[in-house]
Amino acid sequence: MTKTIESTPKQDRFRMPGEYEKHTGCWMLWPERTDNWRNGAKPAQRVFAQVASAIAQFESLTMGVSAGQFVNARGMLPPHVRVVEISSNDSWIRDCGPTFVVNDKGLVRGIDWIFNAWGGLESGLYFPWDLDDLVPQKVLDIESYDRYKAPMVLEGGSIHVDGEGTLITTEECLLNTNRNPHLSKSEIEEILSSYLNLERIIWLKRGVFNDETNGHVDNLACFIRPGVVALTWTDDKNDPQYEISHEAYEELIDSKDAKGRRLEVHKITQPNTITITYEESQGVDAIDGTIPRQEGDRMAGSYINFYIANGGVIMPTFDDPYDQIALEKLSKLFPDRSVVGVPAREILLGGGNIHCITQQQPSG
Amino acid sequence: MTKTIESTPKQDRFRMPGEYEKHTGCWMLWPERTDNWRNGAKPAQRVFAQVASAIAQFESLTMGVSAGQFVNARGMLPPHVRVVEISSNDSWIRDCGPTFVVNDKGLVRGIDWIFNAWGGLESGLYFPWDLDDLVPQKVLDIESYDRYKAPMVLEGGSIHVDGEGTLITTEECLLNTNRNPHLSKSEIEEILSSYLNLERIIWLKRGVFNDETNGHVDNLACFIRPGVVALTWTDDKNDPQYEISHEAYEELIDSKDAKGRRLEVHKITQPNTITITYEESQGVDAIDGTIPRQEGDRMAGSYINFYIANGGVIMPTFDDPYDQIALEKLSKLFPDRSVVGVPAREILLGGGNIHCITQQQPSG
């Protein structure tokens, strides 16, 4: 049964596995807030159900849902998806959920970071975020896993690990004054190392252009396997993403990982510019304190925001010619997995993508 | 993962075990409605926490709780109690929860009966009861157990089984027009037999005097083990319970169980009359449509309303001289279990007792 442990995962020889390591399953949260998801969240719910079904082909999938949406979600999801009541303020379990860590003996525990809705009262995306902040505890209670309470604001989407001691992240997010202003860069490194069991942290400067998360790395770059990274890309010098991707590329190929390897970096060309339509903007309740969804706003589309399942990869598609190119590239990079595309525009409209709405639960 | 099965447990060779058979654990629901539980449900919450702690000495205990009470319940319960979000209209999981059935191969499934809050619109105890009616599905989803949807209104507290084909119940409840007016007695027997895998149903006439459940058997009589029954008792001819208990005694000793055994019946003298005090009545929100809690009302106190755990029995006490007598009797009847008393007046004030707020999950 769940207890809160006072030591750190590193002290107890637990580590965060790479996403490509074996999973027990995956967690998601059901979208419903009408000030973020258009048309009563119905289009988003259909896409979340598609993502859930796609993942459930490969591994167990648990959907957390509020009391009010339980019957609707249960009805929209296939029977083999587990539906449990978990209230939340929105549906980004990558960011508000627990980070699972494992040890050599097959034990699994969870890290419960502090969550402040991507910036707290200074520039967070909504208020309150009290239910989101309880999601890790609720997930861990259901699984009867012990919990580490980490003394730092962190969203899961702001980090990627290779499972062998290396983490990549961005300064734009982790050093942002709206996250942990009282902590220095080296104090943040110390906490990350203690909780995720790291020896090497690779700092990129900025995340994807106009990403409202303050540059989460999971939209920009990720590990394909230890030593191998994928990076969102554009060759268009007039695109604001050009400089960001090129800068990240240089930083990545100049880096060595915890095992002393130079990183192999694969470029995945981003989709064409995606902007919010008038009709889409009109479907969202305009509420003070929630980030507005306005016609013409550019969304942070990227193929990097995929989810790696047991034997599969669930990749966002955007009805764009680059979809097929990304799909082929990922299929080559993951020769042992089936790459499945899911149309993800509706998730993008809510401010994230497939990786942001999923959280893997590694096997012990 | 959870699917709904169209056949019946009997067809699939599943049966409901006796409560004294081995459990995986126990389920409860956290009390909070202020129109039933006095003083904001705080005294009841303390007693529910005591019951949960007492059970958790013997077996795993999961507490279902609404989003709004999650943090409070988590704080009031010991760390080894699992707390999960399950919204409900009130906290009687014996009645609204699933009935677990098992087969010889160690599989466990759940029966989801129709729940109508002890009488529906005719004479139910509150409205609405939509969340209560979803509790079985939520419990089964968390456990990834398959579900039978039974075509009948039934509360778990209105039946007791010996696990060997025998069920005891009361006509006052199961034949009440506020439950299944469209079903005849023999149709009800047919459904009970198909879903619980029975060969013998013993009908008692009436439950405990003034029991607002319409005479649930679990306050009147229960199996100690196959062939052995305990019955609430009084020798006071002026007590309205006198005739009920004597009548039930005659019915029980005249009965044979599914194995052809005559039942051995043990009398457990009831506590002295317990009535609601003025102060207690004043702590409850007076709301139209909820059963009122009025000064001087007699409550249906009985020692029979205990919970059998792995190696333990959790028995209600009432600060009454008969507590000790009941405790000694139960200790003799359960020589291999520790009998633990928990002061239960606060549960009685809400309309039930320890058995009513618990639901065992048998081992496969």
What does this protein structure show overall?
- The structure is a homodimer of 364-residue chains.
- Chain A is of the alpha/beta class and 364 residues long.
- Chain A has one domain: L-arginine/glycine Amidinotransferase, Chain A (5-stranded Propeller).
- Helices cover 26% and strands 25% of the residues of chain A.
- Chain A is built from 11 helices and 19 strands.
- The longest helix of chain A is centred in the first third of the chain and has 15 residues.
- The two termini of chain A are 16 Å apart.
- The mean pLDDT of chain A is 97.
- The interface between A and B is medium-sized, with 26 and 26 residues.
Entry keywords:
homodimer, 364 residues, alpha/beta, L-arginine/glycine Amidinotransferase, Chain A, four-stranded mixed beta sheet, 11 helices, 19 strands, 26% helix
Largest Cβ-defined interface: A-B, 26 and 26 residues
CATH overall fold name of chain A:
L-arginine/glycine Amidinotransferase, Chain A
Task: Assign the CATH class of chain A.
Answer: Alpha Beta
Strand order of the largest sheet of chain A: 1-7-6-5
Tell me the count of domains of chain A: 1
Strand content of chain A: 15-25%
User: Which residue ranges of chain A are poorly predicted, with pLDDT under 50 across at least 5 consecutive positions?
Assistant: none
- If you compute it from the alpha carbons, what radius of gyration of chain A comes out, rounded to the nearest whole angstrom? 19 Å
Counting copies of identical and different chains, the oligomeric state is: homodimer
Supply the number of helical segments of chain A: 11
| Element-by-element helix/strand order of chain A | EEHEHEHEEHHEEEHHEEEHEEHEEEHEHE
Give the class of chain A from helix and strand content and strand pairing: alpha/beta
